[in-house]
From TrEMBL:
Species annotation: Paraflavitalea soli
SUPFAM superfamilies found in the cross-reference section: Composite domain of metallo-dependent hydrolases (SSF51338), Metallo-dependent hydrolases (SSF51556)
Signal peptide: 1-20
Protein name, entry field: Amidohydrolase
Record domain Amidohydrolase-related: where: 322-409
UniProt lineage: Bacteria, Pseudomonadati, Bacteroidota, Chitinophagia, Chitinophagales
Keywords attached to this entry: Hydrolase, Signal
Keyword Hydrolase among record annotations: yes
GO MF annotations, alphabetized: hydrolase activity, acting on carbon-nitrogen (but not peptide) bonds
Keyword Signal in annotation: yes
Superkingdom, natural source: Bacteria
Amino acid sequence: MKRIFFTILMGSWIVTSVSAQETVYPAPAQAQTIALTNATVHVGNGQVIENGMVLFSKGKIVDVRPTAAIADVKVIDCKGKHIYPGLILSQSNVGLVEVGSVRATNDDTELGQMNPNIRSLVAYNTDSKVTNTLRNNGILLANITPDGGILSGSSSVVQLDAWNWEDASYLADNGIHFRMPSLMLRGGGRGGFGRFGGQQPTGDPVKRALDQVENVKVFFREAKAYYQEGTHEETNLKYEAVKGLFSKKQKFFVHCNIVKEMLIAIDFAKEFGFDVVIVGGSESYQIADLLKQNNIAVVLDQMHNLPTMVDDDVDQPYKTPAALQKAGVLFAINDDDGNTRQRNLAFNAGTAAAYGLTKEEALAAVSLNAAKILGVAEKTGSIETGKDANLLVCDGDLLDMRSNIILQAFIQGRELNLTDKHKQLYERYKYKYGLK
């Protein structure tokens, strides 16, 4: 009797384990040339091909054109469907933070204020439960960004189908992140006691913030002198980490929102020659022409939010993308919502399309524009010959939550298993309540 019970129990365990997300393995390399045919192809650069075909082999896009007969390839008929480039999160903590309220699952913050040598890539967890939910919403790449301090460290672009961080790496250490001290005068948190209920530092907060900014400038002046030296008696890891900023191999991501803070970001670009990207930029619409003149890109971090100032239009966050587009500013739309864990990226772009952008401009803001800002536009961001086959096959409009149903997804030509924890729980409770 015990043996029978044990056998039944083991059988039940095996069935459960086989259906668990842990058995969703990264896909093997593309072995056969594939043609997606008869679809509406949204290239990502504003072009749309009706009844189009995308041909890809060995992970690369070979041809994009109207559908025609083709031999010796695997043909997938996508009649009535839409093909899009994979979406890109311009800033994300996926793989660094699993459960925000559980400290042991968080690996995005280092002690200290000046940590440019910290590399977020080596902490990236490819086994995160969050990753698969992002893929099911069309997000195939993400820029993994550290947090904490003033100079938080370097971000890296990863593709979301990998065994480990080495496999995931798409572009390593593409930028250094500067968390601008707030120049906005405001009271404390709940009850006036600050963010965490503790006593706030005394003195002028704006002066204190400006002193911190000056300390960062001093650091970069010293780093520049170090960079210009031919040889060094000792290696300084912090200075070595920012060498790419001076050679423009790295971007300088400045996290700030209000105009005064963005003017300081522009000052960094002028003094040090950095390739500056503003992250946040809720008031960027006010100085859009100035940003264009100084070649400053913007990542709009969270559109579904209230405006920064009480006298701003309540729908200003929705209108800002159109204002930047009109001024010719390179910008990307992001999703920084800690509750939805960034999976609403496509719908943020859809909101922008309802407030002044065209659908194709909104798509570019979460694909090609993001790729340009992150430095990976030569490899991804649009459906063009020679680029990686990072593709989505969607049943309807990708930017509309009513019709956004991802049927197939490919990263570098590898077809993904689109199982995730959400789908598994959905099936579990359908079974419980007899809805199968």
